[in-house]
Specification:
The strands form 2 sheets. A 9-stranded mixed sheet has the order 1-11-10-5-9-6-8-7-4. With 307 residues, the chain is of the alpha/beta class. It contains 12 helices and 11 strands. It has one domain: Rossmann fold (3-Layer(aba) Sandwich). The two termini are 33 Å apart. α3 packs across α4. A hairpin with a 7-residue loop joins β2 and β3. The protein binds adenosine-5'-triphosphate and magnesium ion.
Length: 307
C-alpha cells in the first residue's frame, strides 16, 4: 500500500471514529528549522529596556525581539509576506473556528475560549510547528492579539523554531517571587504577537505546571487582556502528565495527529485524557492534500461543541 493510500485509510478510520479533521500538508520546512537558534543570522533576544522618562522613575518595558521573517518564510512558516502560501491557507482553516469560539463572533462564545492548547498523542507529530504557525497566523488578523506560550517546559521548541535563544519564561514565573509576566514576555516585530518562553529548566517542572501557582498564572494571563488569544504549545499527552494539567485550564484544544503514523487507538486514548475540554479540534498533519481532500469539523461528543 502506498503512503498516500495508508494515510487515506488512516483518515477514514479517524472519520469512522467520529473524528473529522482539517489537513496540513507537508510544507517546505527544513527538518531542523532554517531559523534554528544559534544558526548564522538567528535573532537574539534584546533584554528588557529601561526607559527613563525625564524627571521620573525608570519605566519598565517588555523585552523585545526581532524575528527574522525572511528566514521563517524560507523555513516554511507563515509570515506577513506569505499570506497566500499553502501553509497560510491551512492555518486559516484552523484558526477561523477557534477565533469565532474565543471571540463569540459567528459562534456562541466558548468559556475560556481564548485559552487554546496545541497538543498530540505522541512526540514529534508537529505540535510546535502548528502552534508557531497558528500564532503567526492569528497575529495577522487585524482584531486579534496572541501570546504564544511554550508550555513544553521539559523539551521546549518554540524559541528554536522561531530562531531565538531560550530565555527566562514560564517556569521562572512559577519559581521567582516578584517576577511578572511583563518581565519575561517578549514583544516581537510581528505587531500583535508576543512570546513567553518555557524558561529555566527545573527538575520539578511537572509539579509546577500542575500546581496552584500555574492555575493563578493562567487566570491572571487570561484576565489581563480578555480579548487576547493565549496559545500554549505542550508536550505529548501520552508521554507525560504536563499536557493533562494544562488541558484542565483550556477552553479549546487543537489535537495534532500525524498522518500515516499515529494509530487510531492511540489518538482515542489521548482524546480520552482531555475529555473535559469544551472544544477539541483534531488536525491531520503532514497529510497529502490532493489525495485526501480537506476535512474539517470538531470531534463531537458529550459536552462538546460542534462546528
Ligand atoms: N506540516 C509540516 N510540514 C513540514 N514539516 C513539518 C510539518 N509538521 C512538522 N514538521 C517538522 O517535523 C518536525 C517535528 O515537528 P515539531 O517539532 O513541531 O513536533 P512536536 O510534536 O512539537 O515534537 P515534540 O513532541 O518533540 O515537541 C520538525 O522538524 C518540524 O519542522
Ligand atoms: Mg514540540
Amino acid at each position: 500500500m502506498s503512503i498516500i493510500e495508508q494515510a487515506a485509510e488512516r483518515l477514514e478510520q479517524l472519520r469512522k471514529a467520529g473524528i473529522e479533521v482539517p489537513v496540513i500538508t507537508p510544507g517546505s520546512a527544513q527538518p531542523e528549522g532554517a531559523a534554528a537558534a544559534g544558526a548564522p543570522g538567528a535573532a537574539a533576544p534584546v533584554d528588557a529596556q529601561q526607559a527613563a522618562p525625564s524627571g521620573g522613575a525608570p519605566k519598565k518595558q517588555s523585552r523585545r525581539v526581532a524575528l527574522d521573517l525572511e528566514r521563517l518564510q524560507a523555513a516554511g512558516l507563515v509570515t506577513p509576506a506569505s499570506s497566500n502560501s499553502k501553509i497560510a491557507g491551512e492555518m486559516r482553516v484552523i484558526k477561523r473556528p477557534l477565533l469565532a469560539n474565543a471571540q463569540g463572533k459567528g459562534a456562541p462564545k466558548v468559556e475560556r475560549g481564548n485559552l487554546i492548547m496545541v497538543t498530540s498523542s505522541l512526540a514529534s507529530e508537529g505540535k510546535t510547528f502548528v502552534a508557531v504557525n497558528l500564532a503567526l497566523s492569528i497575529a495577522m488578523e487585524v482584531d486579534s492579539t496572541v501570546l504564544l506560550v511554550d508550555g513544553d517546559v521539559v523539551a521546549p521548541g518554540v524559541m528554536h523554531t522561531l530562531g531565538l535563544s531560550e530565555s527566562k519564561g514560564l517556569i521562572d514565573l512559577l519559581t521567582t517571587p516578584g517576577l511578572e509576566v511583563g518581565d519575561v514576555m517578549f514583544k516581537t516585530n510581528v505587531e500583535r504577537l508576543s512570546i513567553l518562553p518555557a524558561g529555566t529548566a527545573h527538575d520539578r517542572a511537572s509539579e509546577l505546571l500542575a500546581g496552584d501557582g500555574m492555575a493563578r498564572l493562567i487566570r491572571d494571563l487570561a484576565a489581563r487582556y480578555p480579548e487576547r488569544i493565549i496559545l500554549f504549545d505542550s508536550p505529548p499527552l501520552l508521554a507525560t502528565t504536563e499536557s493533562r494539567s494544562l488541558a484542565a485550564h483550556m477552553g479549546q484544544i487543537v489535537m495534532v495527529v500525524e498522518a500515516d503514523r499515529t494509530p487510531r487507538g492511540t489518538v482515542e486514548d489521548a482524546l480520552s485524557k482531555i475529555e473535559a475540554c469544551p472544544v477539541v479540534m483534531t488536525v491531520l498533519n503532514k497529510a497529502v492534500e490532493s489525495e485526501l481532500g480537506s476535512y474539517y469539523s470538531y470531534r463531537s461528543g458529550e459536552g462538546r461543541k460542534r462546528a
